[in-house]
Amino acid sequence: MPRTAGNKFLTLEDPVLIAQCEVDRYRSRGPGGQKRNKTSSAVRLRHGPTGLSVTATEERSQHINKGRAVRRLRRAIALNVRTDIDLTRYTPSELLSSCIVAKGQLQVGRRDGRYHPAVCEVLDLLEACRARVSETAKYVGVSTASLTKFIRKDPKLWERVNQMRAEAGVKPLR
């Protein structure tokens, strides 16, 4: 996994993030009729700084597929690009703090622009805490149950956290 600042890519506007990518447009295979076979509607983004690659082929519109590919790239960066955190100097970012509601719950929806940067920071912190959710929750300022609930809501995030826990020799979350 790249050791760059994942959050710096996640806060970029879409055109700036796309400018960092090699963009491939090609003809997609599968159902969709004549239009799909004659136009290059599928989109692949290869992000140079991280080496991550994503595709979107579902729609017959290249514009819609490009938007989906950018969202998938943001997710891939959040899940896979880690930044080292010095726990002795760590305090939650303003963005992550803004996702904690009055009841001390970490709440931010997947369509919220803060979601992927929040996921990235939580995973960076989880890695610094050797994949221990309880310790990570203390640094974030929420309960272990709240952090687990946040992770559980996104199947890809849940899978990534359990992968990190396996790499650290810790039991998977259930």
Summarize the structure in words.
There is one protein chain. Helix 4 runs parallel beside helix 6, helix 6 crosses helix 7 (133-140) and helix 7 crosses helix 8 (144-152). The chain folds into two domains: 6-80, 2-Layer Sandwich (Double Stranded RNA Binding Domain), CATH 3.30.160; 94-167, no CATH class. The relative contact order is 0.12. The protein is mainly α and 174 residues long. A hairpin with a 5-residue loop joins strand 2 (42-47) and strand 3. The chain has a three-stranded antiparallel sheet. The mean pLDDT is 89. The chain is built from nine helices and three strands; from the N terminus they run ααβαββαααααα. Helix content is 49%, strand content 9%.
